[in-house]
Hints:
With 370 residues, this protein is of the alpha+beta class. The chain has helices at residues 8-16, 27-32, 85-97, 116-124, 141-152, 182-188, 191-202, 215-229, 236-249, 294-308, 330-337, 356-368, and strands spanning 2-5, 37-44, 50-60, 67-71, 100-115, 138-139, 171-176, 206-209, 254-261, 264-274, 277-285, 313-318, 342-353.
Amino acid sequence: MSVQTISTEQHLSFIRTLPSASFLQTPAWGLVKTEWRNESLGWFDADDRLVGAGLVLYRQLPKVRRYLAYLPEGPLIDWAAEDIGEWLAPMAEHLKSSGAFGIRIGCPVVARRWYAPTIKESIADERIGRLSQALPDQSNHDATRLRNRLRELGWRPPGDDEGFAAGQPRFVFQLPLAGKTESELLAGMNQLWRRNIKKAAKLGVEVTQGSAEDLPAFHRIYLETAERDGFSPRPLEYFEHMFSVLNAEDPDRIRLYLAHHEGDLVAATTWVRVGGHAWYTYGASTTAKREVRGSNATQWRMITDALAAKATVYDLRGITEGLESDDPHLGLIQFKVGTGGEAVEYVGEWDLPLNPLIYAAFDMYMRHRG
């Protein structure tokens, strides 16, 4: 196995051979992250066939020409291989020769799944404070083998207090779509979700698909959401750039949805799809008219559109593990559980410090920046 730089077209052609891939591993995502340098990597077998690909983002250490190499939710390789080291070793050699002092990968292998009824029971059980303490409905023993092999190879999972701020969530919430009809998906939701979807329709909430020209309207209520929920918002230019480069790669890579009630914009969301995987990526809503349930209406439209696009998974992205009644993020889990989907734990992110001293310095920098 050998690893080398490949072209954008080679990278995209390989992704098209897969059932799905993380949008964070598409060439366009490298263009979205303008503060990082990007490179498309290819894995070639002994017959010089392209058998794997990955997007690498390089983050430079201040004042030093050394880089952290980051492959978010990737690379796109055979994670079920008998020895994953045969895939990762040539990648590490390539990245080290490119000036990397450390590598972070995101293993897209599912370790455990918890179905909605299990999560609800766990929230009600005072003895269970974290999702990982609940008995999963599915466990992947190959994930345990993979974790053990990664440790043998010198990789380590970042700690919960890891300072490197670009990491992706290990726990996400997904709604399986394969083999389902709209009626079955609606029936699988809890009573509150079904009632809110029907209420929005009865009150005349209209959800439409917007365009780049509608991004300023989305951003206006996104800023309102950020102030209300206490997070730091991204500027409008970020969304305009993301919309432009993702849809330049594929004309239906990203969509914007807008929910109006009597002419007022009450909610807006973005939707991204690569093959059979569709993601809810950003959401916004107004404080006024929350009773018309614009957020539920936009989610339902994105779910049904994902189904129409033949997606097999609708992904509501990250959740935290906390299930205790006073956990500040419990409401987010409960909102997502209402869809009738499942919590998914990935093997997730792992680090390989190629130069431990420089990597420690970079980690300290990321902990204290801004």
